[in-house]
Amino acid sequence: MAERVVIIGGGPGGYEAAHVAAQAGAEVTIVDTDGLGGSAVLTDCVPSKTLIATAEVMSELGGAAELGLDFTDHEGDAATSIRVDLGKVNARVKALAAEQSADIARRLDRDGVTLVHGRGRLDGPDRVRVAKADGSEETLEADAVLLATGAAPRTLPTAQPDGERILTWEQVYDLTEVPSELIVVGSGVTGAEFASAYLNLGIPVTLVSSRDRVLPGEDADASGVLEDVLTRRGMNVLSKSRMESVTREGDVVTVTLTDGRSVQGSHCILALGSVPNTADMGLEEAGVVLKDGGFVAVDRVSRTSARGVYAAGDCTGVLMLASVAAKQGRIAMWHLLGDAVQPLDLKQVSSNVFTAPEIATVGWSQQAVDAGDIQAEVVSLPLSGNPRAKMQGVHDGFVKLVCRPGTGIVVGGVVVGPRASELIHPVALAVAESLTADQLAQAFTVYPSMSGSVAEAARRLHHFRVEQ
Ligand SMILES: Cc1cc2nc3c(=O)[nH]c(=O)nc-3n(C[C@H](O)[C@H](O)[C@H](O)COP(=O)(O)OP(=O)(O)OC[C@H]3O[C@@H](n4cnc5c(N)ncnc54)[C@H](O)[C@@H]3O)c2cc1C
Ligand SMILES: NC(=O)c1ccc[n+]([C@@H]2O[C@H](COP(=O)([O-])OP(=O)(O)OC[C@H]3O[C@@H](n4cnc5c(N)ncnc54)[C@H](O)[C@@H]3O)[C@@H](O)[C@H]2O)c1
Fold first, then answer.
1. Spatial separation of the C-alpha atoms in residues 186 and 310, rounded to whole Å
2. How far apart are CA 218 and CA 188, in angstroms?
3. 3-state secondary structure of 406
4. Are the beta carbons of 422 and 403 closer than 8 angstroms?
5. How far apart are CA 468 and CA 446, in angstroms?
6. Residues 6+ apart with CB under 8 A from 431
């Protein structure tokens, strides 16, 4: 008899696992509350990158004068005024997210996956109870369960979203009018991306950052470049500033800081991190151990502490990325169904911060090298010397490579610049395949191209070995 797999949560952790299990012949059911694609497709990853696509065009137009495009008429007045129609942008964002969700539903249907709408909870390790919107309940028996319930925006009792002017990142797409003065609280990846996007859409932005720099988790040189660019473009970055509360009076939102200062604006986005969707799910009763903050504890093949119960994605708190969620989900199913499986290796994950400029990273970091966690050489090359960058008016950014001293094997890298998300791929390939810097340098790059800087950085790591 086919294995009965029940997956709770229809985001990338859940739906990618469903494909693997269905293709292997399992009988698969996804239980989901919000719609297939999960937060990744409906509220987080896809909508934010669609918004950022519009912001990117605005940002490129901002640099057009340097390339000889004149936006003024003969009297020197602006002949073309470019303004964002946020209503239109957000309608496009929502339509695209809905279409992607429908696309995922069609593909799962084709694979024979059953979808049950409702909220799932464990009733022991091998039974899932689903509470449906109409008040009815369904019980699903399972040989294995995958928890893939994701996470939700963190708020504070003193900073409660009202959905109009005090917003979580999930609520920004209901805006139809352009904020006159936006305050973004939190300078992690979410906060930095929204602050950068709205700034590039022409909106004055204040970024409240509790740490001494934006993106405290990223490469220090990269976040330095970003902060420099953001402040040059007019962003008000308040560092070492912790928000105490957010209040609203009429059209004015006030963010009060713990040191007594306050900042006012028309709208505020809270980007304070996430909390896992693991409460009231019968997890601990079923033997599933939770870590600090309520995240599900898993091993590198996505097993929880309860036999037959796996977990994937943001609910595990392991590098909260859509790509990692999907990989954890697939690994869980490969392991369950006895297929060849390689445990999750976070050192191979490439990620990108979609700010302008973008920051892409893979493998070991310079921070780890500096801390002595790994012995490695680091080379950094500014993009400003790259011929293509000069032609395109790109002044900020760099390529950094991290490589083992003896073997020359590339173990990490950072790219800061336009489309860094694409430029990181050769470095990710080198890390995944244990290529040496010499091998990376040997491959032809197009002249002129930004990727020429990746090869140039690799050439800098070459050590001449002269025969004695
Ligand atoms: C603003 C923002 C931008 C991001 N951008 C990127 C990006 O560019 N690239 C990237 O790789 N990552 C990005 N991420 C991270 C990415 O969105 C998450 O890592 C990803 O969504 C995790 O997928 P998941 O399957 O674990 O959960 P989710 O996508 O959150 O899906 C979980 C689903 O389960 C449902 N659910 C919850 N509880 C239950 C229950 N009890 N019963 C049934 N269903 C339930 C939820 O409603 C949801 O639909 C971004 C995150 C944010 C906040
Ligand atoms: N492009 C992407 O892939 C992408 C985009 C967004 C998020 N994500 C992922 O989602 C995860 C979460 O990122 P995030 O940025 O949402 O959360 P985070 O936890 O990384 O950052 C939240 C920030 O808010 C700050 N903060 C908390 N309380 C505060 C207060 N009272 N005042 C001021 N600052 C305060 C914290 O110090 C922290 O720096 C990350 O793992 C990230 O990789 C990925």
1. 32
2. 9
3. coil
4. no
5. 36
6. 347, 348, 362, 363, 410, 411, 412, 413
pTM of the prediction? 0.97
* Rounded alpha-carbon distances, angstroms, from residue 149 to 10, 87, 410: 8, 30, 35
User: Does the Cβ of 325 fall within 6 Å of ligand 1?
Assistant: yes
The tokens for 72 are 């003024």
Residue position matching structure tokens 């693997």: 20
Residue of the nearest CA to atom 19 in ligand 2? 273
Q: What is the pLDDT of residues 43-56, one digit of tens each?
A: 999 999 999 999 99
The predicted-structure confidence for 57-66, as pLDDT tens digits, reads as follows: 998 888 888 9
How far apart, in whole angstroms, are the C-alpha atoms of residue 6 and residue 124?
Answer: 13
* CA–CA separation, 257 and 103 (whole Å): 44
Asked if the bond preceding 448 is cis, omega within 30° of 0, the reply is: yes
Q: Are strands 166-168 and 267-270 parallel, antiparallel or unpaired?
A: parallel
Determine the topology of domain 166-272 in CATH.
FAD/NAD(P)-binding domain (3.50.50)
Q: Which CATH superfamily is domain 357-459 in?
A: FAD/NAD-linked reductase, C-terminal dimerisation domain (3.30.390.30)
Q: Is the C-beta atom of 193 inside 6 A of ligand 2?
A: yes
Q: How far is the CA of 322 from the centre of ligand 2 (A)?
A: 15
- For ligand 2, atom 7, name the residue with the nearest CA: 190
Whether 357-459 and 166-272 are alike in CATH topology: the answer is no
38, 11 Cβ separation under 8 angstroms: yes
Distance from the Cα of residue 175 to its chain's centroid? 22
pLDDT for the residue numbered 347: 95
Report which protein residue has its CA nearest ligand 2's atom 2: 353
pLDDT mean across residues, the chain: 96
How far from chain centre, in Å, is Cα 278?
A: 21
- The residue whose two tokens read 């070991």 is 364
Whether complex ipTM tops 0.95: yes
Residue by residue, DSSP assigns 361-378 as: EEES-HHHHHTTSS--EE
CATH class given for the domain over 4-152+275-346: alpha beta
Quick check: 430 and 416 in contact, CB under 8 A? no
Residues annotated within a binding site: 49, 120, 186-193, 273, 314
For residues 211 and 240, what is the distance between their CA atoms, to the nearest angstrom?
Answer: 5
List pLDDT tens digits, range 250-284: 999 999 999 999 999 999 999 999 999 999 999 99
Tokens describing residue 74: 């003969």
Rg value, the chain, Cα? 24
